[in-house]
Amino acid sequence: MSVYLSQALSLTQAPTIDNDAGIIGYDNLLTISNVSATSAAVDYPATNLANPSTASFWRSAITTTQYVLINTVGTASYIGLARHNLGTVQAIVSVEALNDSTWETVFDEKILADDATIIFRFAETSAGAFRLKIQNAIAVPQISILYIGELLELQRRIYVGHTPITYGRQTTVQSGRSENGNYLGRVILQERLSTSVQLENLTPNWYRETMEPFVITAKSLPFFYSWRPTTYPEEVGFCWLTNDAIPVNQRSNGMMSINLEMGGFAL
């Protein structure tokens, strides 16, 4: 699970990146009507990417160079991927944007270390379309979740008292014991991730203009989340709210706080 930064973003927006505030990827330009792919296996169309369920997939039928296209005018600063096999198939991936009939690379070619949840973070780009380029796969690639849009950068850093989503493991197990009390083994029936984050001292206008749209969307849709994208880029999750996130007027100057309780996808 990683946040990957484009080289251009590191050079041109270093002050923004260095603040290490958390990021949330909930904005998504991809819809069932604007997504397509160079190839799709039977029963695994690209339109499955518009379904937020991690149980459905787009799966290619080829291993040669191919694209997942989001054919819409919009602005984006990230692509998020969850439950994919791009690391296993050793694919080279990159992100391109269409400007004046020319495809320009906004995130350079990357070979992924594994199949964990990813955020590709790049400079904010307005374009006529976007596409994920997949090259040199040794087997057919597949992706369950693909988001593309503008990142929400949290107003404050997250400090103590927070469990990174990748460490918030919760398991349901069944342990076996013999009649005389001997331990016979244990079976994991379910494994999941969870965490919570308390955001405090949020300025009134920032909460209302920036945070509240996310809270409304997250009532029904999952999102990508990284608590410290620079210091701990591998601690990323594809998450959903498990509580009613209700803001509180925290100070007399109008500053607000809110608690987000989350579940997350475990590989």
Describe this structure in words.
There is one protein chain. By secondary structure, the protein is mostly beta strands. It contains 3 helices and 18 strands. It folds into 2 domains: 2-153, Galactose-binding domain-like (Jelly Rolls, Sandwich), CATH 2.60.120; 165-264, no CATH class. It is 10% helix and 46% strand. The strands form 3 sheets. Strands 2, 12, 13, 14, 15, 16, 17 and 18 form an 8-stranded antiparallel sheet that branches. A 5-stranded mixed sheet has the order 1-9-6-11-4. The termini are close together. The model has no long low-confidence stretch (mean pLDDT 92).
Mean pLDDT across residues: 92
- Portion of residues in beta strands equals over 45%
Total helical segments: 3
Number of domains: 2
CATH topology of the largest domain: Jelly Rolls
Residue share in helices?
A: under 10%
Tell me the Rg in angstroms. Answer: 20 Å
Q: What is the assigned CATH homologous superfamily of the largest domain? A: Galactose-binding domain-like
Please outline the major beta sheet. 8 strands, antiparallel
Shape: globular
Query: Structural class of the secondary elements?
Result: mainly beta
* Ends apart, CA distance between termini: 10 Å
The run of helices and strands is: EHHEEEEEEEEEEEEEHEEEE
* Unreliable segments of 5+ consecutive residues: none
Number of E-state strands: 18
Name of the CATH architecture of the largest domain:
Sandwich
